[in-house]
Amino acid sequence: MDAHSAHTAHSHCVAPVFCTIIPPHLLDHLSRSDNPALYEPARRTLEQDALQRTRRRITTVRTTAGTASAAAGEDGEKKPRRTISDAGHSEKLPGEKVRSEGQKPVEDASVNRAYAGLGATFELYLAAFGRYSIDGAGMPLDATVHYGRDYGNAFWDGERMVFGDGDGEVFRDFTLPVDVIGHELTHGVTQHTANLAYFGQPGALNESVSDVFGSLIKQYGLGQTADAADWLIGDGLFTEAVEGAALRSMKAPGTAYDDDVLGKDPQPATMKDYVHTGSDNGGVHINSGIPNHAFYRLATELGGHAWERAGRIWYDTLTSGGLSPDADFAAFAGATVAAANERYGAGSEEEEAVTKAWSQVGVTPAEDGGGQDGTAA
């Protein structure tokens, strides 16, 4: 099935989905290794991911918004409500509660990193966009650490963040990169806003939006300008044994890693290299490189802090209510141009920069919602 027909067949599937940070193609490479220290954890991780995906399909997610009165402090100040649990290397969720909002750091560094990462994500959305937690209404932020045995992934299951410890051979602890935490929680923001389908181009956009805001959360915490940021996703997640800097590069898709065991980063930067595949839900972790690179181009063209203008345009697009769950690249690009026009004015520097950024990756913004193929310029 090609990407177009696969997308069309699944475009109605917009329920909250199971979203992982590590793409299946990367774990597939590991599972075919001759080294049991590599293939055994990878196979177990793939099996767990498949099980979790099945559970997502047969259970109804509770997406009830938190109430502002319950989440705000006595003075009305909007604060996070974090709970971190420890699965104790089991596959049972949520695990044992080990740290709640306001409690002091514990001895377990994974717990403290998860707590801090949830807070950093909450802070970016509130400070930069006025968004009150994931659902906009003070939703509690829950996470579980130490999931499974050598589990090589982190995921958002519609209700909580879940982190594995990695296998120690290829992957380190998944609480280490704050952008991984921000990426996964942003799947929750998308779930509560545009609810982009997790297949084909809308799925690649879903993944890309998570990369964009994951990177912005990291940049915001470091106080970085667009030109000073590394634009890497998952920097520090690989062990020293891996020939690679990160999972993905928004600045230069396709260059994040090139390793004997993992293979080479397959992400395209432009539509001319768009990957047509039936695996990975139609290549959602692969073709996300194209909208990722468009955002990088926009952010560096505008300069300054990327969350202030470029991020604002993406956030407006996601939350406008005008984006279809099965939006393709052309439709999303058109929505970003409209968002820039709405906020900054027709013919503004921002609107022109958005149009230019999409042109540089080979996407022509649709004026009417677009077709299904991400029209190449």
TrEMBL record:
Q: Name one GO cellular component term.
A: extracellular region
Q: Which cofactor does it need?
A: Zn(2+)
Q: Which CDD domains match?
A: M4_TLP
Q: Where in the cell is it found?
A: Secreted
UniProt lists compositionally biased (Gly residues) regions at 368-377
| A GO BP entry | proteolysis
Q: A GO molecular-function term, please?
A: metal ion binding
Q: Where is the Peptidase M4 C-terminal domain?
A: 194-363
- Per its UniProt record, what Pfam families does this chain match? Peptidase_M4, Peptidase_M4_C
> What Enzyme Commission number(s) appear in the record?
3.4.24.-
Cite the active-site annotation: E184, H285
Q: What does UniProt list as this organism's lineage? A: Bacteria, Bacillati, Actinomycetota, Actinomycetes, Kitasatosporales
Report biased composition (Low complexity) as residue ranges: 60-72
The family this protein is said to belong to:
Belongs to the peptidase M4 family.
Domain (Peptidase M4): residue spans on this chain: 93-191
Show the ranges annotated as biased composition (Basic and acidic residues): 88-105
* InterPro entries associated with the record: Metalloprotease_M4, Peptidase_M4, Peptidase_M4/M1_CTD_sf, Peptidase_M4_C_domain, Peptidase_M4_domain
* Keywords, in A-Z order: Hydrolase, Metal-binding, Metalloprotease, Protease, Secreted, Zinc
Q: Which organism is it from?
A: Streptomyces nanshensis
Chain segments carrying region Disordered: 56-105, 343-377
What this protein is reported to do is described as: Extracellular zinc metalloprotease.
Q: What is this protein called?
A: Neutral metalloproteinase
